[in-house]
Amino acid sequence: MSEEKLTLKDGLKIVILFVCTIGALLGLLISVLSFVVWIISDFSLAYLIGSVFFFFFVVLPCSYAVTKYKPVWDKFGLRRGYVPTPPKEQLKTFIFYVAILFMFFLMYNYFSGFIPSSPESIGVELAKDILRNLVQVNGILMGLGGIVYVQLLRMKFSKTKVVDAVFIVTSMLVASMLSSLSVMASTYNKIEIEWIEIKNYPLNFLILGIVSFLVSLFVIVSSKTEIEGET
Question: Where are the domains of the chain?
Answer without folding.
Answer: 1-84, 86-231
